[in-house]
Amino acid sequence: MTVSLTPLFFFLSFGLGPGPSAGAEEALAVPKERRGASHPLLPEGADLRPRADVGALKERIPLQEAWRDIAWERPGIKEEIRFLAIASEERKAPREPIPGWPYGSPFPAFVLKLFQGEEAYYKEGLYRFLEGRYREAVEAWELLLGRYPKGQLRSRASYWMGEAYYRMKDNWRALGAYSQALIEGRAGDKYRAYTHLAQGWIYLQGGEYERALSSFHALVEIKPRLSLTAIGHYLKGGSLLNLGRYEQASAAYSRSLELYPTGPLAAKALFWKAESLYHGGQYAPARNLYAHFLARYRPSPLSEQALYSLGWCQLGLKDAGGACRTWEQFAASYPHSGLLDSALIGKIRAFLIQRDLAAAQRTYRHLLTRRPESPWRDHALFELAAYRFEKEELGPAILAMEELLRSFPATPLRPTLLFLLGESFYRMGAYRTALSYYQRLAKEYATDPAWGPRSLTRIEEIQPRIDPVSLIPSSISSSRPQARPAAPAPGSACCGSPSPSGGSPGS
């Protein structure tokens, strides 16, 4: 059996989502704030910011178990996925000859003595590295660095020390060794490109996207062989995508495709270019790229994600009918997908855009039947309640939102619900009940930069509409014998509020 140093492939990614199917294992979700999504269901001032946190409801897959591909973000209710790491083609180590017999048999350790000087230590380190004895390999290279301060193999030894530390999951020492390799290396040394790639990879895994971007930029500036340069641009795109610099990310993926259109990363680069366009609000070209991807790379593991994404892109273009048809195809093609629940949420929204409340309610019941414990239940119910709010059907909207608060007290939609309940009672003239919801919002989210100021503004607006005497604390009003209890305000919650609790806020 021949012992040769094959390219070292390492890849990691993590995400969120309960049990994705085989096709969706590359699409593991993590929470990310939505960008560029339109929300036709709610009035101005009633945004859906908490929906962006829905990914936090998913279980995080341990890094050591998530040997899967890439992740990205999504606006709105869509399963949000975030780019972290790439597949096996993207992290490579250079080929290096290893001591061996001419006919391919493993070279015994005693033959290492045939090599002279620093080369003996260097070859011995490589030999131990291939055997998986990383600590012994590091010791051999440390001897080389210590005994040959002006040696010709110092940069290579430092690089392989970094690889050994990486294998031992000691990223801090690995980064130090890679930095030393860059210091020791000469211009034009092929190891410089690999060192930048290895450094950037560790930064990418650790979420240090600016540092990762710097490393990958340095890699492409060196202009190594074509395939490695294409990988550098591809990884630049991933870093930029995570940083929210979508236009630059799209350009990086385009450059990767230009350099290596038939390479192993071509399909992924096309997919992530579509994602970059989507997040940049360019829904039409993104839709076209998704469709092209599905036509050309349908057997790809990313096909499930591309079809799912196409539906959200169509929804972004207000093509609600097209989105519904796409998600129906998605459900038929991937009936066990971990993304199907959120696709049903998208269908509910699409039906409501078409003013088809009955179809939206049927889809909601289908979600409950399919997954009684789905973490998307509160979002589905909120879509229906928000639609009624928009239609000024305030009674049913209040009933639905108060029930949602009672059933899901920890929902990330809680501040939106408190605000909309206040708005609903305000429109009905039930100012005291509206005030109670605004006060709860102000108390529970006092430090929130969005909800805190908004609730205080509403409190200041509504207080003059209520009898000032009723706002005096009881300890003060009792010391004023002339003060009489204020009459209930017209239209208050106690005079016709549809709240099941008689106008008091739901819990």
TrEMBL record:
Record's keyword annotation contains Iron-sulfur: no
Keyword Disulfide bond: no
Highest taxon, organism lineage: Bacteria
Stretch list, region Disordered: 470-507
Pfam families in the record: TPR_16 (PF13432), TPR_6 (PF13174)
SMART domains: TPR (SM00028)
Keywords in alphabetical order: TPR repeat
Residues in TPR repeats: 193-226, 230-263
Transmembrane segments: none
Biased composition (Low complexity): 472-507
InterPro entries hit by this protein: TPR-like_helical_dom_sf, TPR_rpt
Protein name: Tetratricopeptide repeat protein
